[in-house]
Design brief:
Layout: E1 4-6, E2 10-17, H1 23-33, H2 52-57, E3 64-70, E4 73-79, H3 87-94, E5 99-105, H4 112-123, E6 127-133, H5 142-155, H6 160-163, E7 167-171, E8 176-178, H7 189-198, E9 203-205, E10 211-220, E11 224-233, E12 236-237, E13 242-245, E14 251-254, E15 258-263, E16 266-269, E17 272-273, E18 278-282, E19 292-295, E20 312-317, H8 333-346, E21 351-354, E22 360-365, H9 368-380, E23 385-388, E24 391-392, E25 395-397, E26 400-413, H10 417-426, E27 430-436, E28 441-449, H11 450-453, H12 457-463, E29 469-479, E30 491-494, E31 498-499, H13 502-508, E32 512-514, E33 521-522, E34 526-531, E35 537-539, H14 569-575, E36 580-584, E37 589-593, H15 598-617
Parallel strand pairs: 2-4, 2-5, 5-6, 6-7, 30-35
Antiparallel strand pairs: 1-9, 3-4, 7-8, 10-11, 10-19, 11-18, 12-17, 13-14, 13-19, 15-16, 15-18, 20-22, 20-23, 20-24, 21-22, 23-36, 25-26, 26-28, 26-29, 27-28, 30-34, 31-33, 32-34, 34-37, 36-37
Helix pairs in contact: 3-4, 9-14
Amino acid sequence: MKTLTRNNNLRNIAIIAHVDHGKTTLVDHMFRQSGLFRQNQEVAERLMDNMDLEKERGITISAKNCSVNWNGVKINILDTPGHADFGGEVERALMMVDGVVLLVDSSEGPLPQTRFVLRKALEAKHKCIVIVNKIDRKDARPKEVLDEIYGLFLDLDANEEQIDFPVLYAVGREGIAMKTPDEKGKDLSVLFETIINEIPGPEYDSAEPFQMLVADLGYSDYLGRLAIGKIANGSIKQNDELVCINEAAQVLPLKISKLQVYDGVNLGDTASAEAGDIAILAGIEDVHIGDTICNRDNPKPLKRIAVDEPTISMMFSINTSPLSGKEGKHVQSNKIRERLFKEALRNVALKVEDTPEGDSFVVKGRGEFQMAIIIETMRREGYELSVARPQVIYRMNNGKRLEPIEHLFVDCDESFVGVVSEKLSRRKGRMINLVNHGSGRVRMEFSIPSRSLIGYRNEFLTDTRGTGIMNSYLQGYEEFRGEFSSRLTGSLVSDRQGEALSYALYNLEPRGILFVVPNDPVYEGMIVGEHNRDNDLDVNPCKGKKLTNMRASGKDDSIMLTPVIPMTLEKAIEFIKDDELVEVTPKSIRLRKAILASQKRHTLRNKAFSDKLESINA
């Protein structure tokens, strides 16, 4: 019979919320007020966002662990991503905690990722504390938002204990929390006390030997691979003899070189760690997320981490353009493969598969933004590669093709409702709700295929003059809703190799929007612009003005070109069609045709057209 005990000296919590609702800022102030830093110590803002991409974009990409101490109780905190594409990080983090702090913006209310992370927390039977954040906003509506949160809990089938959650109100950037919106708070002491009183300590079976589920992996240049996880039962000392039980149920012996726990934002050495704490075991090589590390004398596996299946896939391949190898450090297929599989080790929501060609790989994940972050990270590490357009992953059921369906939330000005709903209906979207708060902005909800949103975000921002907000979460799978045209324009494709010249680009401007500037290197098959019409057009961007000995009475007009908007990785991925690729190097982002030779492209196009005519006549 189980003899369950609670470790009341510990609390393990995750901070969950939609993107940009203030999680990382709140954690910063929890550090400062718990006495982690000296009063005169200079501390960077958003301390937990330590990746360069996180600092640049102002978002959290991977879940981070840290700890604070309050009145003798150690509180392990996990700061989680707020973007739906990084849902695997949230699912992994929830395996290590016993409760969650749900942050909701006092103006925006619960948004798609709020629903996603809360559903995962409720399924794990975690206790919730709700914080209505940013109540100092001019458009704050805390009472209405709290009603919406209660509605969300009911909608997600929360039990009576879960729906009876404590509510706090906060101004995260000032480090203030209070029990009512009318109070004048001084600090976050109310939040710390609520965490200690409401979130239970970790539960463990005192009769069981040491067991730890690996929920994250790290790497140290000095210590090697780090296995991170919550100790489910028992305790561990540095010299204990341990084994690892992998996915195939094999029992592998292992020895740790160092045992550590979280001390603030850093790791602190310790001689032993007790049940319920989050421990870091160093020097273990052959270990993966989901493995169980336990005592050698009594090996018992724990239930492995289960995450949602990926919904999109992308083809990663070597760069085969004439400019390959000139800007990148890692260009070989084995280097790209090694890096992708290393990423899949740490990211449980990612799957990497080899292809028969050997020089390309299929990467499956949650969304195009997640893929863009991986590509951008590799690019900064010196990799050079080509990527294809994202494709949704279909399922078959009783002979019917099923596709992933998103629940889309759109927030825009009233004047843009018509154009947004029209564009989404063309992409097989169905409006299921429309709310007008009378403030000039309207919130719409759509049920729409995931493939419809690939390449739509930039078009949406253009249609709403940059003021629209669009968020979505995966709703499930439905029967295929039919085909639609994703892009109504063609591409301007270079027909030769050389350097782009001002004279040629000036004469090409009436044909469409250009992506290159004078002196940019171009090659046959490279996309140099977006064509005004729906067909591709081969052009010569290297054509110079013919020089003669004839003199004119006036001087030649100086050529003034329209400024080119720099091509970003997300924009490039959204723009390309199925027969196009994005060429990614540390210094450049170029668009190209998958088949570079124009003659070969025309031959294939004519063959496809004749095959189509034959099928119609037949």
